[in-house]
Amino acid sequence: MEEAKQLFRKLKIYSLLDLALIVPAAYSDTTLSQSLDIGKTVTLDAKVLESRVYNGKLRVTFVLPRFNDRRLSSTFFRTTPYHYKLFEPGSSHVIQGRLDVYKGYLQMSQPKSVKEVGRVTPKYKTVLKESEIRSLMERYITEKNLYNEGLDSKEVATLMRLHFPNSIEEVYHDSRLKPEIVEVLKFVEAFNHLKKLRGKRVDFPALAALSGDITPFVEGLPFTLTEEQQQVIGDIRKDLAREDKAARRMVVGDVGSGKTMVILASAMTALPHKSILMAPTSLLALQLYEEASKHLPKDISIALVMQGKEEGDYEEADFIIGTHALLYKEDMPSAALVMVDEQHRFGTNQRQMLEALVSGEGERKPHYIQFSATPIPRTQAMMESELIDVSLITTTPFEREVHTKVVGRESFPALLSHIKEEIARKHQVLIVYPLVEESQEVPYQSLEESRGFWEERFENVYVTHGKDKEKEEVLLQFREKGDILLATTVVEVGISLPRLTLIVIVGAERLGLATLHQLRGRVGRNGLKSWCYLFSNTPQSERLAQFSKTTNGFDIAKLDLKFRDSGDIIDGTIQSGQKFKWLDMAEDDAIICKAKERVHIQEDN
Ligand code: ADP
Ligand code: MG
Q1: Ligand 1 atom closest to Cα of residue 259
Q2: Which residues contact 553 (CB under 8 A, 6 or more apart)?
Q3: CB crowding 255-286: b at 16 or more within 10 Å, else e
Q4: With 90 as the cut, is the pLDDT of residue 277 above it?
Q5: How distant, in Å, are the alpha carbons of 87, 393, 419, 460, 557 from that of 400?
Q6: 261 CB within 6 A, ligand 1
Q7: Comparing 281 with 604, which gets the higher pLDDT?
Q8: Does the beta carbon of 225 lie inside 6 Å of ligand 1?
Q9: CB 165 near ligand 1, within 6 Å
Q10: Comparing 161 with 334, which gets the higher pLDDT?
Q11: Domain CATH for 501
């Protein structure tokens, strides 16, 4: 047992199904061949007629009793006394090797003498020795064990066939795994992954059951909540009403889908208990504070905590909004509900710090709700919802009118006059460059190279980039006074720029669709008719063409999966979710659905 454990560790596998999913890279087959297929590996009965040394090589002539005693000659280049002894005249063998023909004579160089005839043996490519991995398979991949994992009879039979076939035809068609086997592997892969996620989820009791009235807030709003907003608020209220289980939920919705209203309704639900909301930047925290002050009933006390700025008394407030400065306050009161906005913009380190916010008291934890504006494919949401509950907001409260056009160099004059028109209308323009400084590797102008061009022709040109220490200040100034903002893709424009109606993305084909979508989301925030120009040296790109046709983040997440292998993406923003060997996250919704059902059936039993 201990020995097996070590081998599992070497293989980096953690479940029986992980082992079952190690698929043979090939099979060796010692079934006797029915015909003499030239150029193929064949397995033949053979009797030694003559054996002699010739120029230091061993020459053996065999006769083939099944094929009219035809002769076959073999040469052994690397010979040992063992070979002389083995191939003594008169002895019988089953030999295996590649069959050739030379001037009408059958030949096989350096044949192997097969001991076990009629066996199909899987060949695994792992870090283990052949014998080690085979013995693991023989010991653990049994019908009984596979049934115990929750597989059905067809799945069990398929996996048994894969690891212990009677013939190669059972497994391969045209030397590839048969489709019905691949189908089962996809299912097992999804099922295994979901089971593991399920196992990782640990639920804790909540600090308090929360069911504050949200009507005063909802009735005070200048608009009605969309159906999806109401639905998600409903999901959250159900979570928060429980005391036996602290909520762990992720709300995913495109930029502009109205997540702030969901946040505010959640804070209302928490009353009379406290809630905390954390945002990744000061600008965003400030904006959330302003919106909360505007929309929440006046008797609710709100505090703002960020570096260098505080509003209200956070020790007393019902609702505390802030940046990670929150984490450093020693007298921060404990909250029954913790929320994080724009979760996708927190770094890994910061995410670990967030855990401190939800550490709770002893066994009990606060309810925890995260908000993200990175739409994920439905398949990924289905997977992740094993670990954390997921709510999707797939529509926006009002249709934004954003036109997307892919343009090449020759369209630049037209683009320039469009920019002038927008500025004349008191609108603003954002131009996104791939890099700050010139680089050999990037076939586009950099921010610094282009800067002069814009500054000569336009007034009120502002420039910022990711490493710019002043960027928040520049953005605030641009919002008030700017016409054109030059930036790089890494600059996070956290604030809303309501007059922004035109964005140009230089070198768009180099970016993942998720990034393009985030960038495009900056324009038309207030319903003004807007344009997104994808400037590219390869304007005929199919990926960009498809992107131009939709503005729905969830459709784009799916497109991103579809074009995953298209190779022209450099920013690595492709959804970096789980990598699967068999499962296709773009296509296999139905399989994942089935696997999910199975995981849950198993749990109920
Ligand atoms: P998100 O945080 O999801 O990007 P916001 O919460 O900032 O989106 O909402 C975007 C804009 O939509 C805001 O100006 C907000 O006031 C407005 N809004 C939100 N919900 C509605 C609604 N149901 N009807 C009309 N406008 C809404
Ligand atoms: Mg938001």
Answers
A1: 3
A2: 254, 255, 373, 374, 375, 394, 517
A3: bbbbbbbbbbbbbbbbbebbbbbbbbbbbbbb
A4: yes
A5: 82, 15, 20, 27, 19
A6: yes
A7: 281
A8: yes
A9: no
A10: 161
A11: 3.40.50.300
Which pLDDT does position 565 carry in this prediction?
A: 55
Q: Within a 10 A sphere around the Cβ of 583, how many other Cβ atoms?
A: 22
Whole-number Å distance, alpha carbon 113 to ligand 2 midpoint, is 71
pTM, to two decimals: 0.74
How many domains is the chain partitioned into structurally?
4
- If asked whether residues 542 and 426 sit together in one domain, one would say yes
> Is the CB–ligand 1 distance for residue 537 below 6 Å?
no
Band (494; pLDDT cuts 50, 70, 90): low
Residue where one domain finishes, among candidates 550, 570, 587: 550
Residue scoring higher pLDDT (150 or 357): 150
Contact 255, 521 (CB under 8 A): yes
| Atom of ligand 1 at shortest range from CA of 291 | 16
The answer as to whether 601 is a domain residue is no
Instruction: Judge whether residue 139 has pLDDT over 60.
Output: yes
Q: Which of 229, 261, 277, 552 to mutate to test the pocket of ligand 1 (most atoms within 8 A of CB)?
A: 261
Would 243 be classed as within a structural domain? yes
Residue 580 belongs to a domain? no
Examine the domain organization and report whether 250 and 315 are in the same domain: yes
Ligand 1, atom 27, lies closest to the CA of 397
Task: Give tens-digit pLDDT for 44-88.
Answer: 999 999 998 888 888 999 999 999 999 999 998 877 888 888 899
Query: What percent of the chain is predicted at pLDDT more than 90?
Result: 62
> Do the domain assignments include residue 572?
no
Among protein residues, the one whose CA lies closest to atom 10 of ligand 1: 256
Same domain? 335 vs 273: yes
Token reading at 485? 């903002």
- Highest averaged pLDDT of the listed ranges 145-159, 454-468, 562-576: 145-159
Q: The domain containing residue 450 runs over which residues? A: 402-550
